[in-house]
Write a structure and sequence with these properties.
CATH class of the largest domain: Alpha Beta
Oligomer: single chain
Radius of gyration: 20 Å
CATH superfamily of the largest domain: Spore Coat Polysaccharide Biosynthesis Protein SpsA, Chain A
Structural class: alpha/beta
Distance between the termini: 43 Å
Strand content: 15-25%
Order of helices and strands: EHEHEHEEHEEEHEHHEHHHHHHH
Length: 327
Amino acid sequence: MKNILVSIHCLTYNHENFIAEAIESFLMQKTNFMFEILIHDDASTDRTPEIIKEYELKYPDLIKPILQLENQYSRGGSVNTINFINLNRAKGKYIAVCEGDDYWTDPYKLQKQVDYMEKNIDCSLCVHSGHVVAAADKTIQSSNRPNKGNKIFTVEEVIEGGGGLFLTNSMLFPKKFALERNEFLDNAPVGDYPYAINLSLLGKVYYIDEFMSAYRVGDSASWTAREFNSIENKKRHYAEIEKMLDNINVYTDFRYENVITKTKIKNKFYFLLEQKKYHEAKNGNYKEYYLTLSLKRKFIILMDQYSPFISKVFREIKRRIIVWNSI
């Protein structure tokens, strides 16, 4: 296949219930250019490889899988090492990211992003808004909308925004930046956050204020579920993120030291909330972050502290309201 403009980068592991929908959302894209679908399956133990093979037989010119026989992540490979395996074979000018348990919802998503990138050669990353949905039934849990209206994000905003600022499946960027190798990328505990920071250092980050993808949560086989299944694992993760930010600080000759220090404190604050260490979270360096919380969040914390049963009831009511509104 010649003149491919976009390579779709899809990592998957034990996504047999979701991979077909992800692939279908790729196939529905309406573009005036050619694209390819690069799927890397990390030795799934369910039917994911078989489903990928079925699609490969139907669309041999589009779908190019790598089906590992041995799990690369468990061998000690970082997320970015696995990214490199898939991205190293990309033929497109641009890389569009979507993991195997997520999917796109707008058939013109790729066209809209590529149109912008082609007209703005100084843009190193294009993202958009999307919905966070329940893995089981796709009910909307929340929305990821970093800004009301299109916006160019600064390096500082990307660093402080954290891994949740942009949905991974909204990211599209030039392939020439895809294979960047430096210490903070190679040793990062996650793939999307450091990639977004690195891309922000290389050009402009443009956000399109349109909902064009869905990000699943609540899947027990997901990377997030496996990595965040205990407080100890979360503690290790936050420590690795802090180390990554320190590496970025050195890499950028301390140009962003203020925002990096601020982000590290903010991360510790939110981890204190996760551990329900509310007294500590309200004092010292963390007090300013507590004061910025919404009244609703402060009320929930108050209930958690002094009436956990009532707090649990409120959360159940909220969950049911979300379900009813989605029917």
